[in-house]
């Protein structure tokens, strides 16, 4: 009996030991499972935080981009407004310049017409000498057909066409006047405005021809300096820069005290 009893205890001990081992193993597995869940939650939390940070960065970038686009739109609108303003001012300056030329032209005609009338009256008051009979006879038809009042009306009509921006009609009217009245005191003015009309229609070659007539045929006329300046402008626009420079230098030499000479100096400095 003692031997049997003593033989059973080791078996129970083994059972208890096995039970304890199993319990310890289960506790370790439970602890490992708990550890795995916490690590997974931490990783998920980190990913969510990083994702939120990236979303915030993207949102800020989109906001900055939207602000930049709006700023560009505002700048574009401002520049467009400036361009429109400058275009309006340029058109206004062109109109004022045209009105100024027309006004100056009218003033010059008032000065020229009395001078021509005085010269005619002086000639008429002189006695006719026998030696001048043939000359007077040959000039009689031309003087008889010359009517300063009619010429002034024709010239004014052409000038009104130019003033109304009817450039093609004005050019035709000035050309007709110059051919019909080659010896009129208004003919230099007609050639000058004929050149301006062609220039306004972007026909620089014909404008150049008309302006050259003024300077070559009437070099002492009040518009000769301005005509020469216009010749240089046309030459430059046609790409003949050297000829334009030569013309400006000739302008300075011939008409140093004219307003056109001041403009020529400025161009030569460039």
TrEMBL record:
Residues 62-89 form a coiled coil. GO terms for biological process: FtsZ-dependent cytokinesis; protein trimerization. GO terms for cellular component: outer membrane-bounded periplasmic space. Residues 53-117 form the YbgF trimerisation domain. Keywords: Cell cycle, Cell division, Coiled coil, Periplasm, Signal. Residues 1-32 form the signal peptide. InterPro entries: CpoB, CpoB_C, TPR-like_helical_dom_sf, TPR_rpt, YbgF_tri. Belongs to the CpoB family. This is Cell division coordinator CpoB.
